[in-house]
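Task card 7
Instruction: Convert sequence to structure tokens.
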Amino acid sequence: MIKDNQKAFNRLHILADGFFILLAYLLAYVLRFHWLGLEKAGNYTIERYLKFLAFLLPMCLLIYWLGGLYASKRSRELQWELWVLLKVNIISGVGFVALLFLLKFDISRGFLAFFFGCSVAFEGTFRFLMHWILARIRKRGKNLKHVLIVGYSRAAEEYVDRILANPQWGYYIHGILDDKMAVGTRYKKIMVLGTMEELSDYLKQYEYDEIAITLAIHEYGKLEDLVKKCEYSGVHTKFIPDYNHIIPTVPYIEDLEGLPVINIRKVPLSNMVNRVIKRIIDFVGALICLLLFSIPMLLVALAIRLTSKGPVIFSQVRVGLHNREFKMYKFRSMIVQETAKEAGEWTTKNDSRVTGIGRIIRKTSIDELPQLFNVLRGDMSLVGPRPERPKFVEKFKEEIPRYMIKHQVRPGITGWAQVNGYRGDTSIRKRIEYDVHYIENWSIGLDIKILFLTVFKGFINKNAY
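Output:
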């Protein structure tokens, strides 16, 4: 039943998108040549423009399909679908303009802008309404996808947690089959119904939409037989691995002549092109920042010089890319002290070593500005995990899982953990979680987002003493 509903729903989406493309096309023509009076139609007659539509409509729908807009999105967030919608419309626009250029068709650029704006607005509104309606229908127990879980494990518990926490996805879990847990055992609302040997009987007796195989890692020897039983019955089967604490959320899979190879961690910055792009952005960005902040930096340097004895710039050994040590620069915010003492102590609240001007520049993160020179030298990046002192690296790598992953990329002046509030005297474990997320999901867009958030909420540090 759910498969038929999905097909009907997909057809509805395609018909709706076709209607909205046509509506946006006609509305853009009226806006461009009539209502706003920007330009007289002249040779741009509606009949001539409708000829262009014969190319545009099937091309857009094809690109939407290739972009995944008509695949099942039951557990996808609305933001994801709207982002994909925007991307496929941009691709459609570029493809349509290229086609017109090749065919030597003349078309108003203003019309194209109106058309794609209206198209995204109409289709985005339609999808918002559909998500809203479906979420409420599913919360009331309608349009459900019926699921049977095979294997009790950590993966099974995490799968159940997510399904129960998101009723708008519309999944109904009938129960769990497992060889170790006693029949009647419950995890939250979900009960163990029987053993895995009984899977074929359950498949014959009930019509499930999905089987979720969530074997414990030591039971993977049973996987082949379970998959054969599921495929024999024709039911859609999912495999949810029990090693997500080892392998990241989005592992990088290579195809080695038909042999799938799972890389334990995906690091986009291991790609040379990505590294070069990021390095160019860092270098140019650091130069621009030094020009913008040159006068404030001179004023801070003068204030430090006049209010306390010692050098203006303070350097400290930190651990960076590939565990290499480097000297990180900061404006001096403390009284001059012995290197050995300074290297092994955290700064605490109301620390007597912090100077008057130092307290201000630490709270506002102005003391970090000399690290722009570290960026120019290549020791650091504008965005990345914050570097730590060697003594604490040795300590944390023994205490915190995945701590050393942060050294697979250049450390940064600001980072994903910092803009999410994990700065200064905050949880190291949570900071590493955010650092690892950044490393696995790096993109130029994420760097821009972090820099943007740093400007608006990242400078004032309530945890800096």
